[in-house]
Design a protein that fits this description.
The complex is a heterodimer of chains A (212) and B (425).
Chain A: E1 4-9, H1 12-23, H2 29-32, E2 39-41, E3 47-52, H3 57-62, E4 68-72, H4 73-79, E5 84-88, E6 94-101, E7 112-116, H5 119-129, E8 133-137, H6 144-147, E9 153-158, H7 162-166, E10 169-178, E11 180-184, H8 186-191, H9 193-211
Parallel strand pairs in A: 1-3, 1-4, 7-8, 7-9
Antiparallel strand pairs in A: 2-3, 4-11, 5-11, 6-9, 6-10
Chain B: H1 18-37, E1 41-42, E2 48-50, H2 51-56, E3 68-70, E4 76-79, H3 84-92, E5 102-111, E6 124-133, H4 138-154, E7 160-166, H5 167-177, H6 181-192, H7 196-204, H8 210-218, E8 223-224, H9 226-236, H10 240-258, E9 265-268, E10 281-287, E11 293-299, E12 313-319, H11 320-330, E13 342-346, H12 351-363, E14 368-372, H13 378-387, E15 392-397, E16 400-405, E17 410-413, H14 416-424
Parallel strand pairs in B: 1-5, 7-9, 13-14, 13-15
Antiparallel strand pairs in B: 2-4, 3-4, 5-6, 6-12, 7-10, 8-9, 10-11, 11-12, 15-16, 16-17
The chains are: A alpha/beta (212), B alpha+beta (425).
Chain lengths: 212, 425
């Protein structure tokens, strides 16, 4: 049988996924022991976890370097990867939203400047609305951008909205919900059916059990 | 020395060294023989054509990805971004009286500006494929899919799957559901991604009839075992047109099974990409442990209409470089393969005799190189030839022919006749 390679971003999502695997009887003993390696095989030898940077998961899966990946919808949307998005794991729920200064109205006669860690998501959102915008890619502390005049609004992930509020920003518009997704390489989905399809079924059942 | 810009290659293009090119050419040769044996004749279209040709066709090529040039009269030209559209233009404008069947094959480079920084993409890629015009029966679909399978087998690839789909099943479903263009786009994207949870969310916001919603929601899951999938799709079909399209798919599938291809086949009715273009049975081929589809094809009966002709058509295309990647992964290639079989060394006086000898060896199908013996360091020179793995080194000296083989065994011949006899035996 062929080894199914699973790309995981280090951190909370990795722990959550490994927990699901444990529940459906797939154990990665070395990973659970906290080894600092990046590649781990399960006991049966049928599955292999590859630890990568969260933003690279989609790249690994799209190119077939990994068969399966677990990734936040935010990173997945930004990557625009051509993969199957087969399961909503319901973990890490939050949303994409547009936020701006709560006090200052936006001048409709000027091209809107949008700062974001997710410029592709921002561009696609406004393109769908038929509004042309200028996007500015930032790597962190996006809330700063409207405060110091770098942009009119920001597109970012919002969990509780507290950070926004404390910086004098408010949500202008919701874009979409976000949660962790299971993605599968299209070719692997078609050629490794005998391992991948049962795995997906088991995971789906386990998720249904967990949400009850 | 010239600046750095002259040594670097632009992004997305690469040199092909002799070994790789020889493998690539041998793949092309195998496919040429196969297609010819089924009556497909190779054609070629120009490397650049008018931008308008590809712009006005409801095709599959993003306009920003085409490589553009400006003609002397200001018209925009593009480097061939696709093989099928120009071939359809060519065939549609043929003299149609003599024959209504056109079976053509092509081996051609296509050019697209792929600017996705995260993935490994090329701007120049070699496509190989066939097109069958003028036959709308399922026999044509079967023949084309058969040839796709035979191509992979002929290239020595064993672990692959051909996934069959039916564009019209989904198209009819969308017409009956009376959704807006935007809604259809959103629905299609989710079905293509097999994203059931988001598909459900989207359907919840529309006022499509419940019965239709149920079928749409099942679309991403209509894949796998062909008999089961067809049965399930049959029970979901909402009208005769949908059933008819399924029966067409079933017929093609059964005929392929009859031909012994069952192990290579699967069905996915959720495969609905490029629907502006495809009008019936569609298919994609995947090789195990290779992340991308290796062959894409299907029926496109509407395309020649745009050139004022009405020829039903079906065909497929391979990205040959991807096939080459797979084959190279499976075989360990040496970085340099010596092919020269004999090397004739001579001094200026014996030049004429040496070149005549070399020519006679070449006439006997040997690969032969020649050079003057260097006055200094002759030993180093010969050592280097041995290192390259050349089978026979012939030195002409004092009217004699001294042959040394790989194992340093030496034979001396008095005439070139003797040498030819000795060597070619």
């Amino acid at each position: 049988m062929d080894v199914v390679k699973i790309a995981l971003g280090k951190g909370r999502l990795e722990e959550f996924t490994v927990e699901i695997f444990q529940k459906i009887g797939i154990e990665f003993p070395e990973l659970e022991k906290g080894s600092r390696k990046l590649i781990f095989d399960d006991e049966s030898g049928n599955f292999r976890i590859v630890l990568v940077k969260a933003t690279d998961v989609a790249t690994y899966v799209e190119n077939g370097a990994a068969d399966i990946g677990v990734i936040g919808k935010d990173t997945l949307m930004e990557s625009e990867a051509d993969v199957f998005e087969v399961l909503d794991l319901g973990f890490g729920k939050c949303k994409f939203a547009v936020a701006g200064l709560s006090v200052q109205p936006i001048n409709p006669n000027q091209k809107l400047k949008v700062a974001s860690k997710y410029p592709n998501v921002a561009k696609a959102f406004y393109e769908k609305k038929g509004i042309s915008v200028e996007t500015i890619k930032l790597n962190g502390s996006v809330e700063l951008a409207p405060l110091i005049g770098l942009s009119d609004v920001i597109v970012d992930i919002v969990e509780t909205g507290r950070t926004l509020k404390e910086n004098g920003l408010a949500i202008i518009e919701d874009i979409c919900d976000i949660s962790a997704r299971l993605i599968v390489n299209k070719a692997s989905f078609k050629t490794k059916t005998e391992t991948i399809h049962p795995l997906l079924n088991k995971m789906e059942q386990e998720l249904a059990r967990m949400s009850v | 020395m010239l600046g750095n810009g002259t040594k670097r290659l632009p992004e997305g293009v690469s040199d092909i060294h002799a070994n790789d090119l020889e493998i690539k050419e041998s793949l092309i040769q195998k496919l040429q023989l196969l297609y010819r044996s089924y009556g497909y004749r190779q054609v070629q279209t120009p490397i650049f054509e008018y931008y308008d040709l590809f712009l006005e066709i409801n095709g599959t090529i993003d306009r920003e990805k085409m490589v553009k040039l400006v003609d002397r009269d200001g018209k925009i030209l593009v480097l061939r971004p696709d093989a099928t559209i120009p071939i359809a233009r060519m065939v549609a404008t043929f003299d149609k009286k003599e024959d209504s069947y056109f079976k053509v094959s092509y081996f051609t480079n296509v050019f697209r500006m792929n600017d996705d920084k995260q993935s490994i993409t090329n701007r120049e890629r070699t496509q190989a494929g066939i097109e069958l015009f003028g036959n709308k029966s399922s026999e044509a679909d079967v023949e084309v899919i058969t040839l796709a399978i035979q191509s992979l087998k002929r290239l020595g690839i064993v672990d692959f799957k051909i996934d069959l789909g039916q564009a019209n099943y989904f198209k009819e479903l969308m017409i009956r559901s009376a959704v807006s263009v935007e809604q259809e786009g959103e629905i299609r994207k989710r079905i293509e991604q097999k994203n059931v949870s988001e598909l459900k969310q989207i359907l919840d916001t529309t006022n499509i009839e419940a019965a239709y919603k149920e079928v749409i929601l099942s679309m991403p899951l209509l894949y796998g075992n062909p008999t089961e999938v067809i049965q399930q799709a049959e029970s979901l079909a909402l009208n005769n047109k949908m059933k008819e399209e399924l029966r067409h798919l079933e017929e093609v599938y059964n005929k392929l099974v009859e031909a012994g291809f069952e192990e290579y086949l699967s069905i996915d009715l959720g495969m609905i990409n490029d629907l502006n273009y495809y009008t019936g049975i569609i298919f994609q081929g995947y090789i195990k442990n290779y992340g991308k589809p290796i062959v894409i094809g299907g029926r496109y009966d509407q395309l020649t209409k745009q050139f004022g002709s009405e020829l039903p058509a079906t065909g497929f295309g391979f990205y040959l470089d991807d096939v080459l990647d797979v084959i190279k992964k499976n075989t360990n290639q040496a970085t340099f393969v010596n092919q020269t079989e004999a090397f004739v060394l001579f001094s200026e006086n014996d030049r004429k005799a040496a070149l005549r000898l070399a020519d006679r060896l070449r006439e006997s199908q040997l690969i032969v190189e020649t050079d003057v013996i260097p006055i200094e360091d002759a030993d180093v020179f010969i050592k280097e030839l041995k290192r390259r793995g050349i089978e026979t080194i012939i030195t002409i000296q004092n009217q004699q022919f001294i042959c040394v083989n790989k194992n340093d065994e030496q034979v001396v011949y008095n005439t070139s006749e003797d040498l030819l006899k000795g060597l070619l035996l």
